[in-house]
Amino acid sequence: MVIKSANVSNRNESVSTTLMVDRIKKVVKHGIYFLSYHLHLFDLIMFIVSRLRREYPCIILLYHRIVDDRTIYLDKGPVVHHHIRDFEQEIAWLKKRFQFLSMDEVVDTIRSGKFFARPSVAITFDDGYLDNYTLAYPVLKSQGVPAMIYLATSLIGTNVKTWPDQIEVALIASPKKMLSLPDILPDSGMPIVTKDEKQRCCIQLSKALKGIPNMERKTSLNQIFNELGVSMEALENSGARTMLNWDEVKEMSANNINFGSHSHTHPILSRVPLKEAQEEIRLSKQILEELLGQPTKHFAYPNGRAEDFSDDLREYCREIGFKSIATVVYGTNNMYSNPHELRRVGAVRPVWIMAGELTRHCL
């Protein structure tokens, strides 16, 4: 018992030391980024690189929601919740140093076997949130920047939310002080009194539910709502719309914003039967083409990890005419990339961290 306790203690000390070292590395890296940004060293680095190389990576940036000071939300990080102030600064910084490409241009360059002759970036959003129109679109339009929004078509023009958003709004509305779900959360449950506690619980619940089959997830969601003492139906009927409607989609489509498929109801496609997953993809593509009157050539699958898709579904996407598939697998793209396995880089903040990360990718 003494030996076992000593081993556990040593492991805990090792984990603690590793975490401390990681935090120190992060602080140092961010310090370098901060100074390099404000001293314009990134511009000098990019100038030197431009003299040394003929080809560059193409960086596909991933966003979801754009928020402002009035938005009520539980912060799940800059990929999911990105403040408009940061977004405005990022677009301004990128415009001076990168060429913005549409997803058509990204895929055409790769398929033609050409390299990207300049530092290149494409802007993408997943799901189809209203704030993509009210906050992001005016910035993109004023700067002449193209973007791709991948739509979960069943949500467009409705008050229905993705299941992670359902968890978020339920936690915000819940009067409970503790959430106890032995099958999902730690045995002792999680406190949900403060906003920070609700944010941690929201992230924990979403992480736990991503790994289970779709029907089990629906059952677990109902259990979560019951424990929180909220009715999702009542929340969606009483709350303000958070998703785009088709008039907004059509307006943006006429102004340099392209739209792709993100499935119909936003399940994790590897967690549903193959035929059901194929129908999710097919129906979404059909609806987009009927309502926008043009081919839908680009697809991004929900959640986006390698384990959230399959080779069978990838082949099905090729068969029905998709020219590209975007993932959330981290990385950049070049002339040798597979257009049906495009990597993306999640948005980070503030602008000097994004400047550092994107400059690093160009080295």
Describe this structure in words.
The protein is α/β, with parallel strands linked by helices and 363 residues long. It folds into three domains: 2-39; 51-158 and 243-362, TIM Barrel, CATH 3.20.20.370; 163-238. Helix content is 50%, strand content 14%. It contains 13 helices and twelve strands. It has helices at residues 2-38, 41-52, 84-97, 103-111, 130-143, 163-173, 195-210, 214-228, 232-238, 246-253, 274-292, 311-319, 351-362; strands at residues 58-63, 65-67, 81-83, 99-100, 120-127, 147-151, 178-179, 190-191, 257-261, 298-300, 324-330, 342-346. Strands 1, 4, 5, 6, 9, 10, 11 and 12 form an eight-stranded parallel beta sheet that branches. A two-stranded parallel sheet has the order 2-3. It has a two-stranded antiparallel ribbon with strand order 7-8. Helix 6 runs parallel beside helix 8 (214-228) and helix 11 (274-292) runs parallel beside helix 12 (311-319).
Reconstruct the topology from this structure:
Blueprint: H1 2-38, H2 41-52, E1 58-63, E2 65-67, E3 81-83, H3 84-97, E4 99-100, H4 103-111, E5 120-127, H5 130-143, E6 147-151, H6 163-173, E7 178-179, E8 190-191, H7 195-210, H8 214-228, H9 232-238, H10 246-253, E9 257-261, H11 274-292, E10 298-300, H12 311-319, E11 324-330, E12 342-346, H13 351-362
Parallel strand pairs: 1-5, 1-12, 2-3, 4-5, 5-6, 6-9, 10-11, 11-12
Antiparallel strand pairs: 7-8
